[in-house]
């Protein structure tokens, strides 16, 4: 059984206790599929007060994490078997499902959580981490992005989810996942689609694929440009688009007169 080691370097290690004590991350840890280790960056800071940040050279608001504790921590943890350095930064490559899958196949990850105005550039030049962003916005630190990355990666480790459970996730096939239903069969006048109750697995699979195409077309049409679509997918998608255009025309024709 392979175990993914994930080291997290942060000024606020206490932030990780709650999220990692629940759900799939806890399950993976207890099963030995993931070895999570959270480290206080101040343990490698110099001086009696263990200062890990300082003012910005050149002036400006905020503080910057100092290079000495970051480099010392990464070198020490690397010597102990820590994996690939990953810096959580809004300037990094966007975290998506393919990247999560690639990181899940790494033997280990060392996540560096920035704070304040970020990390001294010299630390980044020396360590050459993979910089990863969870979106085009700025948070107060890299701790929440690190939690997001850990959750996205850990759920893809073999043995965490039921076999095949992640295969139809949104983005796993390049499309958004279609709608899902459970009991009761009827709720406030809304019924579960008959096809899902038919027991015909081929019809159900075709319906799910069609609804995934429909939802992607309506919500994230840009994904269709790179999704691996078969000739049948394109035929179905063409029908979905025609249906939407027709519905839009019918709504327009039924609107109030000017």
List keywords for this structure.
258 residues; alpha/beta; Alpha/beta knot; Trp Operon Repressor, Chain A; 2 domains; five-stranded parallel sheet; two-stranded antiparallel sheet; 8 helices
In short:
The chain has 258 residues and is of the alpha/beta class. Helix content is 36%, strand content 17%.
In one word, what is the shape? elongated
Total number of distinct structural domains: 2
Class inferred from helices and paired strands: alpha/beta
The percentage of residues in β strands lies in 15-25%
Strand tally: 9
- In order across it, which strands form the biggest sheet? 2-1-6-5-7
Helix content: 25-40%
Unreliable stretches covering 5 or more consecutive residues:
none
CATH class of the largest domain: Alpha Beta
Number of helices: 8
Rg estimate, integer Å = 24 Å
Pattern of helices and strands: EHHEEEHEHEHEHEEHH
CATH architecture of the largest domain: 3-Layer(aba) Sandwich
Characterization of the model:
It is built from eight helices and nine strands. The chain has 258 residues and is α/β, with parallel strands linked by helices. The chain has two domains: 4-154, Alpha/beta knot; 186-253, tRNA(m1g37)methyltransferase, domain 2 (Trp Operon Repressor, Chain A). It has a five-stranded parallel sheet, with helices on both faces.
């Amino acid at each position: 059984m392979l175990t993914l080691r994930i080291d997290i370097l942060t000024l606020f290690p206490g932030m990780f206790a709650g999220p990692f004590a629940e759900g799939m991350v806890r399950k993976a840890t207890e099963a030995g599929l993931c070895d999570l280790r959270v480290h206080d960056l101040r343990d490698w800071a110099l001086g009696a007060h263990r200062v890990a940040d300082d003012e910005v050279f050149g002036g400006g608001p905020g503080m910057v994490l100092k290079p000495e504790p970051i480099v010392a921590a990464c070198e020490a943890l690397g010597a102990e078997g820590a994996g690939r350095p990953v810096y959580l930064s809004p300037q990094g490559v966007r975290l998506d499902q393919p990247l999560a899958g690639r990181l899940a196949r790494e033997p280990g990850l060392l996540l560096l959580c920035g704070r304040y105005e970020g990390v001294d550039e010299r630390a980044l030049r020396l360590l050459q981490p993979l910089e990863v962003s969870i979106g085009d916005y700025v948070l107060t630190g890299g701790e929440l992005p690190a939690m997001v990355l850990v959750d996205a990666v850990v759920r893809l480790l073999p043995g965490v989810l039921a076999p095949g459970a992640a295969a139809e996730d949104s983005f796993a096939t390049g499309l958004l996942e279609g709608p899902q239903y459970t009991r009761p069969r009827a709720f406030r006048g809304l019924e579960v689609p008959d096809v899902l109750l038919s027991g015909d697995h081929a019809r159900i699979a075709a319906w799910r694929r069609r609804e995934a195409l429909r939802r992607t077309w309506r919500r994230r049409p840009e994904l269709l440009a790179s999704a691996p679509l078969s000739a049948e997918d394109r035929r179905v998608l063409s029908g979905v688009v025609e249906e939407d255009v027709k519905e839009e025309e019918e709504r327009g024709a039924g609107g109030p007169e000017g």
